[in-house]
Amino acid sequence: MEYYLATLETPNIALSERRLQLQKLVLLYDVPSDRRGWVWMILLGIGYVDLEYYIELVKRGPSIDFEKIRKDAHRTFSNNAPFHKKVSLNSMSRVLNALVHDLGIRYVQGMNVLLGPLLYATDEVFGFYLLRRLYSLARSYFSPDLCGVHAGCALLEDVMGIIDPELQQKLFKHNLRGFLWGFDVVMTFGACLQPLDEVLKLWDFLFSFGLGLMPLLSCIRIIKVRDMLLSHNNPYEIIRTRAITFDAKNDISMALQYLVLLPDSLREKLCSHFGDADVCKAINPSSLRPPNPACS
């Protein structure tokens, strides 16, 4: 705790320097829950929040997508009692409607799932500014055609082909392309996983070192049960039930070990695809790629 307090409260430090210090701390120590909002703000490069501006947006009332937002807000983590004890449906609706007003965009399904952990970890105003920043950083993931998500699913196939080609061949043999087993995890940056406290730890890392690492982390999740998948007649049953232990620290540790095995060109695509539509368009969606010939 004291290391984070020193970094957050020491005056006259540039935002970039404070961010660099926090990146180092995230790898060594857990982020204090009562400071996570501030840590995320700095890691994502947000220098301030304007409470009055947010209140002004809220006063505009329902947006053009109010009904869609209302329905999705009710569905967000519907079976997670601790989440709903802390986060109200009204706060979710206010933030999402305010975002539509602020950016002049249309609500896209999945924004509610991304907002959920933000409001669980911090307050409503911080949640708004954090979600707005995520939209700015990962525009391709928020586009109506979800081109960034499709590109991410193609990239996770590329990653799997390098770090565990045997498992990839098994998945291809059963027609389990990347978009079938990785789409929801990639699209939500892991927010759809449980428990939610582990999602927060995962986001500490992603906000520190790049959202583009999510396809790699999605592969790690599958590799952890590779022996079960390789021996099972229907591996999708294992993936579908989500009976895979989610331990953020362990997954991150494994991801860092595998990251050095990836070629520079693939690492560059991982780092840029989530915010660059041109990179996404140059990556064939996994659903359109021919399967590995060795699996046919």
Automatic annotation (TrEMBL):
Residue ranges constituting the Rab-GAP TBC domain according to the UniProt record: 30-210
UniProt-listed SUPFAM superfamilies: Ypt/Rab-GAP domain of gyp1p
InterPro entries per UniProt: Rab-GAP-TBC_dom, Rab-GAP_TBC_sf
Pfam families named among the record's database cross-references: RabGAP-TBC
GO-annotated molecular function: GTPase activator activity
Protein name: Spindle protein, putative
Species name: Giardia intestinalis (strain ATCC 50581 / GS clone H7)
